[in-house]
């Protein structure tokens, strides 16, 4: 039986959401606390953004979820490709990409290493440095030298860019279309790769230059934007309601279901991040693997507790006011503490 969140749990989460919004962490935000049996509490604070008027965000406000793309798009699509025999986690990613000539040291990283951030690839990713290059992007990335010893944990976006390119090649379909079919199957009808139309129901993100328009409806991540908004590491827009639907689908799938089996295998630690935290396949693992979570740079988070059937969704556009991590830390810390308790 799932362990429901108590009224005290949700009251504390709601109050902390209000506090971080009042302190300027974000114009507003939404937290959803739910369980696999359909119990759900939606908490909101603030406004979508000043330019959107006085309306509060809701479970149906569309947010740029940034690096949650990794666990909402790339991770489950890799799982499907493993299930279908198209990808072997322990073979070099170059085997899943168009043929390349010559040495490709970064292409020797395995799919498992890429998805677990243990590839040793160069961490800094500036696709603008490849402007005007004669080679395709996958080859440019694969020809880069390694920066660390494989097996070393370091969060690296370019690994997920390569995974997205590999999925496109193997499926002979654009990544956004392959992902859209999956989201439709899961009932996530408000989850898309951008761009999306600017409306008051879409949360704007950062103003890059004083006096210039804000980033609004297009990918905040520069590398995803250079790829047309469709990438393995970032670029997806979703709503709190859809992320809750996704979390419930993951937690409801048992190990006989492909989604459940993939989740179970992904919650096995692959590398230590710091004391008390490990990296699974994509997910950060806490409390001995009983909790899995991931953050997005724009101010989003998703937490799963398979053993208690609980999940938490956080959607904010905190990057609207600058770097989000420090400002959102109290809310994220409370979310982890709350979902870990029984």
Automatic annotation (TrEMBL):
One function term, GO molecular function aspect:
hydrolase activity
Indicate the transmembrane segments per the record: none
Q: Which InterPro entries match?
A: Beta-lactam-related (IPR001466), Beta-lactam/transpept-like (IPR012338), Diverse_Enzym_Activities (IPR050789)
Beta-lactamase-related domain: residues covered: 18-336
Entry keyword Nucleus? no
Q: Which PANTHER family match?
A: BETA-LACTAMASE-RELATED, BETA-LACTAMASE-RELATED DOMAIN-CONTAINING PROTEIN
* Protein name in the entry: Serine hydrolase domain-containing protein
